[in-house]
Amino acid sequence: MRRVFISYHHRNEQYLKEHLLQLNGSHEIFVDCSVDTGDIDDDLEPQVIRQTIRRNYLSESTVLMLIVGRETKYRKHVDWELYSSMYNGTNFGRSGVVVLLAPNCESEYFSAPFDEIKSTFYPDVSNWISIDSREEYERRYPHLPPRIIDNLLKRDSKISVTNWSKVANDPEKLRLLIECAHNARTTCEYDMSRAMRMRDHNPN
């Protein structure tokens, strides 16, 4: 089983993480390496928190699974987890990234960088197209963190974007998403140019 770090907005999407863990408990899909609420003291300095997440949690995983809700993109911890999972360091290599759109953020669109995912999830689709516009990605996925859109624009990042309903009760599809991301992680080329978010900020 692959080792997976689940990144999410703890207050809003905890129920979705628990659903994934229940599904995992019944079908042995992955090894959970993610942080639980209360595992890390929020009063620590940001650099200490980043190092703790990186060394104690992300370093053990090969796939980051991001659950995207309506406020996820405003969370600094989510951005730190994304950045750290994409960083190809000396001691810890980069991870593959899987994005799941929460039920209240599902889209009529999807991104599938692997043939296995195309044929398994979307067998009726034949007219696949590539998107090269940030504005178009933001229109299709208005709740995605900017760092994910940076990397969807970079062809070699190989990030899949899938609606929650596609995997919520389908352990084999969830396993396939994880397996594809794991296998591709060493060849992914991520855009790391965006500075890390230093505070939580929701403009709405």
Please give a quick description of this structure:
This protein is an alpha/beta fold and 204 residues long. It has helices at 10-27, 46-56, 76-86, 115-121, 134-140, 146-152, 171-184, and strands spanning 2-7, 30-32, 63-68, 96-101, 160-163. The protein has a 5-stranded parallel sheet with strand order 2-1-3-4-5, sandwiched between helices.
Helices, strands, pairings?
Elements: E1 2-7, H1 10-27, E2 30-32, H2 46-56, E3 63-68, H3 76-86, E4 96-101, H4 115-121, H5 134-140, H6 146-152, E5 160-163, H7 171-184
Parallel strand pairs: 1-2, 1-3, 3-4, 4-5
Helix pairs in contact: 4-7
Provide the gyration radius in Å.
Answer: 16 Å
Distance separating the two termini: 40 Å
Number of strands: 5
Measured as a percent range, the helix fraction is 25-40%
Strands across the major sheet, in which order?
2-1-3-4-5
Q: Low-confidence parts, pLDDT < 50 over ≥5 residues? A: none
Strand content: 5-15%
- Round the mean pLDDT to the nearest integer and report it: 90
What's the order of the H and E elements? EHEHEHEHHHEH
Helix count, DSSP H or I runs of 4 or more residues? 7
Shape call:
globular
Instruction: Report the structural category.
Output: alpha/beta
How can the largest sheet be summarized?
5 strands, parallel
